[in-house]
Amino acid sequence: MDKQQLELIVNDLLDNFYRRRIDRITTLKLKDTLARKNPYLYKALGIERASEIVEEILKAYMSSSDEGIFGDAFFEPLAEKVSGGHVGDTEGVDVIIEDDNRHKAIAVKSGTNVFNADSRKKQAENFAKLRSRIYKRGKLFDAIVGYAYGKKETDINKQGFREIAGQVFWEELTGDSEFYLRIIEVIKEKPLMHLPEYNKAFDNAINRFTLEFMKEFCNEDGSINWDKLLIFNSGRPCKKLSVEEPRSTKTLALDEWLQIKTVVTFNNNTVQDITGSLDITYEANVEGVIDISKEGVVSFKESVEPGTEVKVVVSCYGKSISRTFKLKRTAGEKRN
Question: Is 104:142 a contact under the CB 8 Å cutoff?
Answer without folding.
Answer: yes
